Amino acid sequence: MMALRGIYDVLKHNYGHVKVDFAQPFSLKEYLEAPQAPATPVSDIATSGICKSKVKRAGSDNSLYGTDIVVEDTRQLVKGLAEHIVYDSVHVNTIMSTNIVAFLLLTKFREGIPFNTLVKELDKMKEGIASRGYSIGFTGTSTAIVHHAIRLLGGNLIRVENVVVTSSTGPDVISNEKSNKEKEFVTPLLSLPNVFELSYYSNTLISVFLMESVLANAIIAECGSTQLMFNTCHSSPLSICKDRLLTRAMQLCDLLQFEFIFAPPCGNLTNVINDAIEELAVKGVITVKDSITGFKDQRWVRQLAATTGWESDESDSVNNSETIEINMSSENKKQLQFLQCVLGPLIEGYWLSVCNLVRLLDMDVDDNTYIRMVNMYAKERVEKGFAVFSESCSMDTLRNAVKVFLHWKVLCTYYDAENIKMLQLKEPYRDEAKLSVLIDKIEVFRV
């Protein structure tokens, strides 16, 4: 009775408006009856090869079917259904004002930003989110919205202060007189553990820019961060092979496979990456160029080859002839920097984890102790000012990194005499040179 009374008390109160978005429904019957598409090849950084899932049989003592054999593809079917539901639900998330303000402060304005500029950036971000098919969950004037978001986030996450700004009277005025004005300045508090709560609000928007961020990090990794991001003298376009960009992007998706679902089970990761390339091309960040003429629509040819299974020398040459040209204007550099920062904290966390695998060269360590050791090392880097992203020392990120290394068979686990789960480096990574190669392959994504 007490539980029912509590439910009644909740329902009778007015808590404001609730916005519910529903994803596109699909038939469970059709999903189960449809032939399952083969798994999308994913580049495995650890082996520099292509990993494909294989259908195999596994023993079971508790089968739902009353037998001791369970077909692995049935498990994959259930897993795929769950991933499909999660993938769809993420793409109908409603974006709130606190999400946008936190996201802007952690990706574009970590050093702080004048309040009036933040208001303008919120308007731009709203347009960008809406153009990508996501729903905005608030209305009103932008100034009031930003004030409301800052109030909700609170003083533990954001500092608002009045700063005296000195500006000249203008270029057309001969006088050297200057005027002092006070402006509201908004600064994110990036100290630990406050930054984790701020990133909690910000992370909702990662899915909006996920594939664009994957491509931006792949471009920076392929071209080199020094040449692309920090060389102010270089303004002519840079060109890279599209196949190499696809490989880099798939490597990054493989690295972050326990963080995101990049493509639905019924989809294809290569197609998703190609769609993201087209989006960046539409925005003018990159240009896709074909060196082969004679086809009016090269993309149509690739799609025909993919759907019909036609793999001729001509289709291969069409695929291999494409190059990506990166626009090196200051505006596009800023856009690439922004997109890089979307996944930057995760990449830094994974890099920290792989660097600390050298601790396992001399001895095996239990998994909880290893995570704590890496976390302490990451916090020390934050305290000393070495970390680019202070949120990179998140325990969730470090745990997922260990899961990836286990999946890649870089690590293995066993139980010692006291039944404690231990982590151990597998061959050939017990050799320091081999481990250094793996570290370098992940470090290439780090700016």
What assembly state would you assign to the polypeptide chains in this entry?
single chain
Number of helices: 17
Largest sheet report: 3 strands, antiparallel
Number of strands: 15
User: Kindly state the mean pLDDT as a whole number?
Assistant: 81
Q: How much β-strand is present in the residues?
A: 5-15%
Uncertain residue segments? 49-69, 168-179, 311-319
Structural class: alpha+beta
Major sheet: order of its strands? 6-9-8
Note the overall shape. globular
Radius of gyration: 25 Å
Indicate the percent of residues in helices. Answer: 40-55%
How far do the termini sit from each other? Answer: 58 Å
Give a concise summary:
By secondary structure, the chain is of the alpha+beta class.
Observed structural traits:
447 residues, alpha+beta, three-stranded antiparallel beta sheet, globular
Q: Can you offer a commentary on this structure?
A:
By secondary structure, the chain is an alpha+beta fold. The protein contains 17 helices and 15 strands. The strands form six sheets. Strands 6-9-8 form a three-stranded antiparallel β-sheet. A three-stranded antiparallel β-sheet has the order 10-12-11. The protein has a three-stranded antiparallel β-sheet with strand order 13-15-14. A hairpin with a 5-residue loop joins β14 and β15 (421-425). α8 crosses α14. The chain is globular, with a radius of gyration of 25 Å.
